[in-house]
Design brief:
The complex is a heterodimer. Chain A contains 8 helices and 10 strands. By secondary structure, chain A is of the alpha/beta class. Chain A has a domain of about 150 residues: P-loop containing nucleotide triphosphate hydrolases (Rossmann fold, 3-Layer(aba) Sandwich). In chain A, the strands form 2 sheets. In chain A, strands 5-4-6-7-3-8-9-10 form an 8-stranded mixed β-sheet, with helices on both faces. A two-stranded antiparallel ribbon of chain A has the order 1-2. In chain A, a hairpin with a 1-residue loop joins β8 and β9. In chain A, α6 packs parallel to α7. Chain A is globular. Chain B is α+β, with helices and mostly antiparallel strands. Chain B has 3 domains: about 160 residues, MutS, DNA mismatch repair protein, domain I (3-Layer(aba) Sandwich), CATH 3.40.1170; about 100 residues, Dna Ligase, domain 1, CATH 3.30.1490; about 100 residues, no CATH class. Chain B has a 6-stranded antiparallel beta barrel with strand order 15-16-17-18-19-20. A 5-stranded mixed β-sheet of chain B has the order 5-6-1-7-8, sandwiched between helices. In chain B, strands 9-12-10-11 form a 4-stranded antiparallel β-sheet. In chain B, β5 and β6 form a beta hairpin. In chain B, α1 packs across α4 and α12 packs parallel to α13. Classes of the chains: A alpha/beta, B alpha+beta. Chains A and B meet through α3, α4, β5, α6 and β8 of A and α13, β13, β15, β17 and β18 of B.
Chain lengths: ~240, ~500
Amino acid sequence: MGFPLELLDEALSAKLIPASRLEHEPRRARLSTGVAALDARLGGGWPAASLAELCGRRSAGRTSLLHATLAAAITREQTVALIDTAGAFDPRSAQAAGVTLNRLLWIRLAGEDARSNVVRLGLQAADILIGAGGFGLVVLDFGEQAPRASTAAWLRLRHTAERQGTTALVVALARGAGAAATTAVVLRDARPRFVAEGGPLLAALETHVAVERALGVFPAPANEQGNDVSALCFSVQPALRTS
Amino acid sequence: MRVACIHVPQLALQAVLRRSPQLRGTPVALTEAPIGRTGRAGRAHVVMASAEARRAGVRVGLTAAQAAAVCPGLTLNPRQAADSEAAEAALADLGFAFASHVEREPGRVFIQVDDLGHLYPSEEAVAQVIQQRALRMGLGVRVAIADRKGTARVATRARERVVVPPGMDAAFLAPLALAVLGEPLPAELAEAFGRWGLARVGAFAALPAADVGLRLGPLGARLHRVARADDDEPFLPALPPDAIEEAMALDYAIVEVEPLAFVLRGLCDRLLARLACRSLACVGITLRLALETRTFDVREVNLAAPTREVGPLLQLARLELSRRPPDAGIVGILVVARPARVRGAQLDFLRPAGPAPDRLAATIAKLAALVGPENVGAPRTEDTWREEAVGVTPFAPPGEPPPAASPAAHVMSMRRFRPPEEIEVMLGPEGPAALRGKATTARVTVAAGPYRLSGEWWRPSSRASDHYGDGDGHGDSGFSRDYWDVHASDGALYRLHHDRIGDRWYLDGYYD
């Protein structure tokens, strides 16, 4: 006696969902980087409620991009905080980049004790800030350090950010969060541009951005496979040259 | 008018239990040493004992040694005015948690409860909630609600919790023993009642008022009016006290911060509970520490915004004390809270919700405890031409939306070395040709400059090293500098300057 296939289909149809009916992951909200070209590459900007990394060597353009991000977040009325582990934040250039200073919570790690425990203190401060809730963007700036922390520490930071809806942006010399970061942007091959006006005059910083990791962006940026980078240019604010 | 009387039996003892909650459920007695004719304290006698102590045989009047012999596990505490005052104040705050007008008398408060019917289903529920609230504040209270103050006062002596129905005051009082009319009943009145064969309030109330007044005097006449439930004692509310404070006298001097923080936690806990009764939060505390040297050390601990969490308050107090420890051992602590209303946050459907003000204050306090209060806040540019100058102001984002950003070109920013790093520079015909610092050695490929900057000439010149001594750019003297933007062979784009006064070179930072 043959098994009635109709019954089997009926039983399976309640348990299985055909691939054609699978729903896509809901689109994640984005926080603008302040640079339209990069926003386009990242599907709208830094992913909200997640951990992202911004890396690069000295004079690669990280701080300019960071200030653009801070300015964009403040313009969108987000509450933003900057944990400055090196005490390198320059309010004048941040102001020139459009950052409203009285809307930025600045935490600097000063003193010998703080300098010797930069990573631990930085992560602790980030945990306090993000855990409080209500912050749209919390930046953890390690400056010229490549932060060494356990995977558990990074995952904890990411989960706290996801829970509170905060974008945690880690700025460092090199990537450290690994798979815990949903987005990683690396700046490299920066070159200054001088113009001749009687003598050389600094005009701009031209840099190249590579999106090394971008989860949830469809289609994935081409340079996630390492084969494409795009150029960015940050110009000098005349007021900065002579204060 | 419906009046609630909230009474704390054995207030002095409860004050001790409120200060030391770990003693609850154990035998505890309060002692007092009478001052003799010579002005010296005599032997300490028990003046109050907990139920556990009384069960073990401790009685009022025993000497401390006798009480300890009767009950070996007994905790003896000297009676302290500070404890009782704090408990009295806490009782008043309990009253203010339920009514705007509170009348105080030793050991009890009266409040009007007519309007509470809108908030609670019944007067029984009101009485129950008052008792629960008091328990959270560390006080066990008796509550009575009646038409008259006198009835409510007497009822708290008879029952733990009672609601006398409207118009039934006399009927409620009638079966009670006469002893509840006083606290205690004066001896001459008790003797007269015994002589007349009276045992119940109802029998006393049935006597003719004029004859009672003639024989027992004004006090007897007043008690007779209470017994008949026709006393006309007015309700006399008082304003709430401005200062909310908690104090503690220590048995032994404390010299270290950690044990002091332990004591402070209890005090702050109780302060915040009292503030919460009045729907207030704390924006700072004043610590008045009594030292062994018979002097006082006063500290201020300020918060950026009102909070109801004890953690940040305690962390800041601990930070303040560890930064500048008191000169001598501490023998007494007075904590005065600065009350403030919590700002209501108006949420906007179209704008992102920021952190709640009290949560933000708590967060800033935690961060201040972690990295130091001078390192947390909003950055501020100083009114000076010194590029490196920076200040920090308390973080209080304004309510109005930020100005719309202009779609300007992307601006190049800088990272600074604080303080600027002193370097050696080799000069060429076009300016700096090479530089060498602690972590930087490079040839200069392009040098743009110099950009001369000088100022603050009115300040006296001093050594160049003083210019950056404090790292915040506030040098003591004038400055005159030649700035250069240089592209170095290590790929970095540095900003450096030549200090023309001290003839030294400094690396300010790099463009990034």
